């Protein structure tokens, strides 16, 4: 069964946005001009554009027209457990991870409480900057107990997923607890994430648990507010 005409036009316009034919902040042609160029009716073009506006790819501006917006990345980790690479690939983007630091240190009171260990216990500190299509998206600091993961520093997390490696070690993360806050970006975060100082940053404090309820991961992730949105699904029980 052939696709509806508006869907064909919608996909064509979306491809032009992704290819850079229509760039961020640029006005797309008027409906009447697109209808003439593509040999379709104006209602068909209007339907296609409306769907792209609802999807966050376009924005209607009074007295100006319709512009290409900065597309936000749909993040679903608020209700599912999956790797960063999977999330980014599901958005049709290329994920990249840069390991800024992987060292050991003594657990602070905050880290010790999250991992249910004694303060000053030795833990790993894994610091990563993660990007989508070469644009920095999130800065993550992760703490893990050394006692349960003695060989973790042998792994190059530039190319390997932390959750996948934990699963291989028989320590799969099956449940997480997350606290969400919004704060202005610090100078360091603004520099790493290539945004403005005091720009909105989503902070996710995550504790990851194994199936036997052991706290194995404590992460603090700083997400750019202008590049991400977060899906939450709630069922009535």
How would you describe the oligomerization state of the chains in this entry?
A: single chain
Residue share in helix: 25-40%
Return the string of H and E elements.
HHHEEEHEHEEHEHEEE
If helices are DSSP runs of H or I spanning 4 or more residues, what is the number of helices? 7
Distance between the termini: 38 Å
CATH topology of the largest domain: Chorismate lyase
Q: Which stretches are poorly predicted, pLDDT < 50 over at least 5 residues?
A: 77-81
CATH class identity of the largest domain: Alpha Beta
InterPro entries: Bact_HTH_transcr_reg (IPR050679), Chorismate_lyase_/UTRA_dom_sf (IPR028978), Tscrpt_reg_HTH_GntR (IPR000524), UTRA (IPR011663), WH-like_DNA-bd_sf (IPR036388), WH_DNA-bd_sf (IPR036390)
Protein name: GntR family transcriptional regulator
Keywords: DNA-binding, Transcription, Transcription regulation
Organism: Lactobacillus kitasatonis
